[in-house]
Amino acid sequence: MDPEATLKAENLLYSYGDILAVDHISFHIGQGEILGFLGPNGAGKTTTLKMLVGLLVPQEGTVAILGKDIVKDKGEIQAQIGACFEEKSLYEDMSAAANLRFFASLFGIKDLDTAGLLRRVGLPDDRKDRVANYSKGMKQRLMVARALVNQPKVLFLDEPTDGLDPVSSEAIRSVIMEEKADGATVFLTTHDMMEADKLSDRVVFLSDGNIAACDSPDNLKHQYGKRILKMRYHKDGELIEEELPLEDRQAGRRIQEILADYDVLDMHTEEATLEDIFIQLTGKKLE
User: Fold this and answer.
1) What CA–CA distance (Å, rounded) separates 84 from 160?
2) What is the pLDDT along the chain (287 residues), one digit of tens a residue?
3) How many domains are there within the chain?
4) Nearest CA to 137 among 160, 105, 114, 113?
5) Is the same domain home to 75 and 151?
6) Residues 121 and 231 in one domain
7) Are residues 27 and 134 both part of a single domain?
């Protein structure tokens, strides 16, 4: 465990009756790092998130954020973090700007640049109508904007782009990377392996409340994945698809044989995805 980590979770456990949701897990996140918490629905991601932000008290273990204990110093920590949950918690009878101003008032912030914050997440800054009229993507952008009101040092995002259109997803991804560039620490839960691969410095594979792996996406691919070359060619009038593991010493010779003897339609390399590796390590799919 990194002693300089912005967030340190040690030996966390939480159960709902007889159902063990999180089983003695430990991990850390450094300043300016994005940690992707990757797992299928029901793996324990949201329960972990709620313990990290102080909405649930760990039944065992500790959480330290910015050097302080989330249970003993919850108020002080919550003033310096931002959280965006999958469940929307907006005041739908109010405008987007009014939502942000109200949330800012809870932090004692009186001079919030609501227009600038709305523009930052790709929302119009001059709409006066109720949030109830917003699309799912617009509401999700507003949730992200709300999480940024207090300029948090640590940002918690629960499935921030789940089910959103490509434009809304890209707007949120851009904001996440901007926060990282400004030094914020980001905890990101997702079951979208492509999302995790794009954004995360490291990922945690969570399955049945246990950590199956924790490393950078590249390291996991190199350690557990195999790179292959896929070739399609015609042989005796039949279309043949052949896969050649690039780690195989005989692959080069076989490639030369195919190129010399057959009409090759196409060839491309392919590496294992995070989902492939997750299935390999846990026996489960992400969705």
Assistant:
1) 7
2) 555 789 999 999 999 999 999 999 999 999 999 999 998 888 899 999 999 999 999 999 999 999 999 999 999 999 999 999 877 789 999 999 999 999 999 999 988 999 999 999 989 888 889 999 998 888 988 999 999 999 999 999 998 887 788 888 888 899 999 999 999 999 999 888 888 998 999 999 999 999 999 999 989 988 887 778 888 989 988 998 988 887 788 888 888 888 988 889 888 877 778 888 898 888 887 66
3) 2
4) 160
5) yes
6) no
7) yes
208 and 192 within one domain: yes
- In which domain, by residue range, is 235 found? 226-270
Same domain, 115 and 247: no
Tokens of 163: 């089910």
